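It would be a great kindness if you could assist me with a short task in structural biology. The full record is reproduced below for your convenience:
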Amino acid sequence: MRWAVALLATVLLLAGVAGCGGNGAEPGAPRGASVVLDFSPNAVHSGIYAALAEGFYADAGIDLHVQVPGESTDAPKLLAAGRTDFAILDITDLGIAAEKGLELVGVMPIVRQPLAAILAPRDGPVRRPRDLEGRTVGVSGLPSDTAVVDSEVSADGGDPSSVDEVTIGFNAVASLAAGKVDAATGFWNAEAVEAARQGIPLRVFKVDEFGAPSYPELVLTTTRAELETDPGLVEATVAATRRGYALTESDPRQALDDLLAANPSLERADQAAQLKALLPALKPLPFDEAVLQEWSAWASSHDLLPEPLDVRQAFNLAN
């Protein structure tokens, strides 16, 4: 009898395995997936947290796990190694990854405008970008900062080679308030908002107002392998994420509540101010190929990319 009981147990076990999906989940169970953020959670990610809280990912059959990047996180490499399904990347990082041969594909714009800007005290001598000729501008040390300065000063009729760049790290507001530099690079949705909340009046020169096209700054990205082998997962994730950002656009208070509920250490007033500034740039629309072509040409002309990118390969223009 023992062999019969053992055989019956084996048959039942095999039947149970056969009844599960390929990933071991019960039929109809949500598909597990993960996304690595580009930065610690903030108003930029409101649509993702809204989609989680309101059940949009669950409705699409996805159990999405959000990963906050650490200091050493290299999201493009995590994607390429299959250690995450999706990541939010700066568009330049996506372009650099493509140039390095990593098979990554942007599947949805998250922020539809560049966030970079040159910030200058309102009562200072810099009233427009070309006024930086012969003056100091604080930069973080990233190549993108130099591209922003070059683009803005040259587009405004100035000579960017005459600008004195001073590395200040990520201390734009403090450096401006202390008068250490005449201007500084920063993000209009972060440092500019922070300065306004501190009562520090600034002039904000957005890069897409001086030379750069209005390209999508942040992009939801996956691998080409994921896109080709599991298009259903990609399409469902994009659709649910779009729903989250559509809710953010129509009901920003609810999206803010969802963001703060998942990240209680964030300050409501800070995130509310950032979200208010960001709302026009969070529209959940598809990619615009013409804009991507303009961005590719602009990025290569300012040495962010070695040559213009094949945007039809680097972005899923069907989304």
Observations:
- The CA atoms of residues 147 and 302 lie 5 Å apart.
- The first strand starts at residue 31 and ends at 36.
- The radius of gyration is 23 Å.
